[in-house]
Amino acid sequence: TVMLAQRRMDPMDRAAKRADTMKRELSLDEVQYKSVKAINEDYANKQMRIWRDTTLSRESRHAQMRVLHQEKEAALKKVLTEDQHKKLVANRSAQKKMRHARMARHHSERAERMQKNLALTDEQTGKIKEIDKVFANKFRALRSDITLAREDSREKARKLMDEYRFQTKSVLTDEQLKKWESQKQERKKRKS
Known about the structure:
Blueprint lengths: L1 H7 L2 H16 L3 H23 L5 H22 L2 H37 L3 H23 L5 H22 L2 H18 L1
Helix pairs in contact: 2-3, 3-4, 5-6, 6-7
């Protein structure tokens, strides 16, 4: 949800917010702040152009994004002191670890939520956790495969999701399955 909310934010607003955060965390002076803000805005504009270019293959898009990221890093290195850059890298690393921990916690709690909401047995909960683990690895592998075209990747993701649902459903009793389907429909209604 947080990721989707961030993606919906205007890229220029996001660039300004990042510059403000960097100013606070890295103790940037006004000259550095203005430079960092300009770099972030330039990066956001170029990033939008790449993502909106429907003629690019997924592999090409990722390659261009890597180059763009390297350019941004080089520009930031010129503006920041060595200590500020080290702190920036350390902050990013810490944020990445926190994000991964939060995602892992959310996914592990999914089985417990299902256990509570659907009155699963401990055995069913264990099976759901194993299914979640297997499919998390499959989805991770799919996301990291940059050789696939966007449409192929989406199609494989849909098939994986169907397979995931099928395996999850196979663990549930008929009554639990009805309740699970009902809860999914309620979530869909709330989202729309």
